[in-house]
């Protein structure tokens, strides 16, 4: 008779996910501008993976384009920036208050590789490249069915609404 030793367990890292209710604690955006539906996994100081479920009843499809609806590129970039903002707050281990604002500082090397259409699930992978003088720089890639749809380097800063008129880096 063979016995199996069950006294040792192998620990696998737990996935850190977030539902929409948790996401809303980290982002001030609300419909129609909340563009992150779920966080699949994240690691502080490193990366985050989130999704945007693209549905035909989204307001922007009424005009972009009625005969061939595609998600506007600027909204794909915005969805990745919102994902990056969540990662920043998680990395700092804080929840923003009603006075917190995250602003774009720059967008570099943006490329749009394929259209994102109703029914698609945009999977956004964002990694922190560096943080310097209050400026966060990320590499962001959005894909659908494993194929890159959009990629860019994003730069953002987190400000108090009271300080929002001050230049970045001050």
Automatic annotation (TrEMBL):
For whether the record's keyword set contains Protein transport, the answer is: no
Function according to Swiss-Prot or TrEMBL: Involved in unsaturated fatty acids biosynthesis. Catalyzes the dehydration of short chain beta-hydroxyacyl-ACPs and long chain saturated and unsaturated beta-hydroxyacyl-ACPs.
**Its GO biological process terms?**
fatty acid biosynthetic process; lipid A biosynthetic process
**Record's GO cellular component terms:** cytoplasm; membrane
In this protein, the active site sits at: 64
Pfam families reported in the protein's UniProt record: FabA
> In which family does this protein belong, per the annotation?
Belongs to the thioester dehydratase family. FabZ subfamily.
Which EC class, in a word? lyase
Q: What is its EC number?
A: 4.2.1.59
State the source organism's domain of life: Bacteria
What are the subcellular locations of this protein? Answer: Cytoplasm
What is the name of this protein? 3-hydroxyacyl-[acyl-carrier-protein] dehydratase FabZ
Q: Which UniProt keywords apply?
A: Cytoplasm, Lipid A biosynthesis, Lipid biosynthesis, Lipid metabolism, Lyase
Q: Which gene encodes it?
A: fabZ
This entry's Gene Ontology molecular function terms read:
(3R)-hydroxyacyl-[acyl-carrier-protein] dehydratase activity
Q: What reaction gets catalysed by this protein?
A: a (3R)-hydroxyacyl-[ACP] = a (2E)-enoyl-[ACP] + H2O
Q: Does the keyword Signal feature in the UniProt annotation?
A: no
What the entry lists under HAMAP family is as follows:
FabZ
């Amino acid at each position: 008779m063979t016995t199996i030793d069950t006294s040792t367990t192998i620990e696998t890292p737990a996935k850190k996910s977030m539902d929409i209710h948790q996401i809303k604690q980290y982002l001030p955006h609300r419909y129609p501008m909340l563009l992150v539906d779920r966080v699949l996994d994240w690691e502080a100081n490193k990366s985050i993976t989130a999704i945007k479920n693209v549905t035909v009843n989204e307001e922007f499809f009424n005009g972009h384009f009625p005969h061939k609806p595609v998600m506007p590129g600027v909204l794909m970039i915005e969805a990745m920036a919102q994902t990056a903002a969540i990662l920043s707050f998680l990395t700092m281990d804080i929840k923003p208050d009603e006075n917190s604002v995250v602003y774009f500082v720059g967008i570099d090397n943006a490329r749009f590789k394929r259209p994102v259409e109703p029914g698609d699930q945009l999977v956004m992978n964002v990694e922190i490249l560096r943080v310097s003088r209050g400026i966060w720089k990320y590499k962001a890639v959005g894909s659908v069915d494993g194929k890159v749809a959009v990629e860019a380097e994003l730069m953002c800063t987190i400000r108090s609404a009271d300080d929002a008129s001050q230049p970045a880096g001050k």
